[in-house]
């Protein structure tokens, strides 16, 4: 009964392995070094994340001073990246300082300005450092979300150093599109137009009110991709709504023009803000701006409930899909620049796979030849276990959708060599028991039993090393760790369970005088 249970377990393991093993090219993903793809190193412009925070604080302080009925001449960011507050009355100075101290503890007065009507504030250095660190971490997460929606198997996206991010995408056929998708900042904002300043004379003269900014709408030729024309817009400096409240973004086709556009929907908080803005600004224009580019500036005809809007801009279907992806994944906290961009062809990978297979076949053949010569029939059983080990490893990799890399092939070959080690320990122990005068079956039982602790001890240390490599290693190192870890577990099963089951089936009910070992 126990022998039947052993065979049932073995057959189940093999059935599952074969199921997940084929077709091999679809079950097991190939890494960048084998399949080809793109290797990009991005640099996060963390200083701009700090400046963006200062811009936000500038707008918040301006609004709070108005709400607190404090008279001021201006609140602006100067060229040094500090916030300067110009007071109408020096007597208001203490009120402003108390408000800043209470609500903005991360801002410190520089104390370098002697003018009683001007307060200069700078960001606390520790806060600036935290913003920079968070910007890189958030950029990693946003890029990972975008790549997941792009549909790449087993991408490598990880932080390198203080400001760099490594991105490796295996099998990417359009690296240019992928780079655009990864690098797009995708900061979505809604601005009200300054109706009084939106005229040709104001824009040409450059006499823009201090609370306004100029942004441009670009018309791009679909065929050449070149900018055909630009339209200037004078906008109120503070955005009335941002993409932080975005809930959904999906591509739709306009029934009127048969062109794709991106439909967006805000969460409940964003929907409420959007409804209030549209209710208060009927017959005024609101610009939809993405990465400082004005996509459209429609007139608000009525109050809009439900928090839905659309972004149109003569997109191709692919451009609309990519825009929807970056909006769903979220905006980058700071722009990123491409520091290194390499496209790796698959020819190197094909050559590596062929050489890896040849090396594996030669290595396995050499091990089998040694086992047959040195351990005779017992070596034949060990060889069956060795070949079975390869099937289980490939099946397990297919089950977990593991990625096979060049180091992974090395790990597979190494594991195949190590797999026979357990059988060597068992057979040497059996020989020792036979020399002590035990019967063949007793020697066999004792050999498996006494070698077990040594097998587990030696494999556990290697298993721990494999897990550490997987946890802290990069893509190729992880590939090595995956095959090594799966191989160790598989080799214990084949060397101990499978080999012993074959021996018990052949010799269990027989009286044998000699064991071929």
Automatic annotation (TrEMBL):
Protein name as catalogued: Protein translocase subunit SecD
Organism the protein comes from: Calditerrivibrio nitroreducens
Biological process annotations from GO: intracellular protein transmembrane transport; protein targeting; protein transport by the Sec complex
GO cellular component terms attached to this protein's record: plasma membrane
Keyword annotations: Cell inner membrane, Cell membrane, Membrane, Protein transport, Translocation, Transmembrane, Transmembrane helix, Transport
InterPro entries referenced in this protein's UniProt entry, alphabetically: Acrflvin-R, SecD, SecD/SecF_arch_bac, SecD/SecF_CS, SecD_1st, SecD_SecF_C, SecD_SecF_C_bact, SecDF_P1_head
Membrane topology: Multi-pass membrane protein
Function according to Swiss-Prot or TrEMBL: Part of the Sec protein translocase complex. Interacts with the SecYEG preprotein conducting channel. SecDF uses the proton motive force (PMF) to complete protein translocation after the ATP-dependent function of SecA.
Domain Protein translocase subunit SecDF P1: residue ranges: 136-194
Ranges for domain Protein export membrane protein SecD/SecF C-terminal: 337-506
GO molecular function, one term: protein-transporting ATPase activity
Pfam families: Sec_GG, SecD_1st, SecD_SecF_C, SecDF_P1_head
Keyword Transport tagged: yes
UniProt subunit comment: Forms a complex with SecF. Part of the essential Sec protein translocation apparatus which comprises SecA, SecYEG and auxiliary proteins SecDF. Other proteins may also be involved.
Transmembrane region(s): 7-24, 356-375, 380-400, 406-430, 451-473, 479-507
Family: Belongs to the SecD/SecF family. SecD subfamily.
């Amino acid at each position: 009964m126990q022998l039947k249970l052993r065979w049932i377990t073995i057959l189940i393991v093999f059935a599952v392995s074969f199921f997940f093993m084929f077709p091999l090219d679809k079950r097991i993903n190939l890494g960048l070094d084998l399949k080809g793809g793109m290797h990009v190193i991005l640099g996060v412009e963390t200083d701009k994340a700090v400046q963006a925070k200062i811009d936000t604080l500038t707008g918040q302080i301006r609004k709070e001073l108005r709400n607190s009925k404090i008279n001021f001449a201006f609140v602006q960011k100067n060229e040094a990246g500090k916030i300067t507050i110009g007071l109408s009355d020096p007597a208001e100075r203490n009120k402003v300082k108390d408000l800043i101290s209470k609500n903005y503890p991360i801002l410190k007065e520089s104390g370098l300005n002697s003018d009683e009507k001007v307060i200069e504030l700078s960001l606390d250095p520790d806060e600036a450092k935290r913003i920079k660190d968070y910007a890189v971490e958030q950029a990693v997460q946003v890029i990972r979300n975008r790549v997941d929606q792009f549909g790449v198997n087993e991408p490598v996206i990880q932080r390198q150093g203080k400001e760099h991010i490594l991105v490796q995408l295996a099998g990417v056929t359009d690296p240019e599109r992928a780079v655009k998708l990864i690098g797009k900042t995708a900061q979505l904002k809604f601005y009200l137009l300054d109706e009084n300043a939106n005229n040709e004379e104001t824009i040409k003269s450059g006499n823009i009110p201090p609370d306004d900014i100029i942004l441009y709408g670009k018309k791009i030729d679909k065929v050449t991709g070149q900018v055909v024309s630009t339209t200037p817009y004078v906008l109120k400096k503070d955005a009335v709504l941002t993409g932080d409240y975005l809930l959904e973004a999906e591509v739709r086709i306009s029934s009127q023009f048969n062109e794709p556009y991106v439909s967006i929907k805000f969460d409940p908080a964003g929907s409420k803000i959007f409804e209030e803005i549209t209710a208060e600004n009927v017959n005024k224009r609101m610009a939809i701006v993405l990465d400082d580019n004005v996509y459209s500036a429609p007139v608000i005809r009525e109050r809009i409930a439900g928090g839905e809007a659309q972004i149109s801009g003569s997109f191709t279907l692919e451009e609309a899909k990519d825009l929807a992806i970056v909006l769903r994944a979220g905006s980058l906290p700071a722009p990123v620049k491409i520091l290194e961009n390499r496209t790796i062809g698959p020819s190197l990978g094909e050559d590596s796979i062929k050489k890896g297979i040849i090396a594996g076949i030669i290595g396995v053949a050499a091990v089998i030849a040694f086992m047959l010569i040195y351990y005779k029939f017992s070596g034949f059983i060990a060889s069956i276990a060795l070949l079975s080990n390869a099937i289980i490893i490939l099946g397990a990799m297919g089950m977990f959708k593991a990625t096979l890399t060049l180091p992974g092939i090395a790990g597979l070959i190494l594991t195949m060599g190590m797999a026979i080690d357990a059988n060597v320990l068992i057979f040497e122990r059996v020989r020792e028991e036979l020399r002590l005068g035990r019967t063949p079956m007793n020697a066999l039982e004792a050999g498996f039993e006494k070698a077990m602790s040594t097998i587990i001890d030696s494999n556990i240390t290697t298993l721990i090393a494999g897990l550490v490599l997987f946890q802290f290693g990069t893509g190729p190192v992880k590939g090595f760790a995956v095959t090594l870890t799966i191989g160790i577990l598989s080799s214990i099963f084949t060397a101990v369970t499978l080999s012993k089951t074959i021996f018990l089936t052949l010799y269990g009910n027989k009286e044998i005088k000699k064991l071929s070992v």
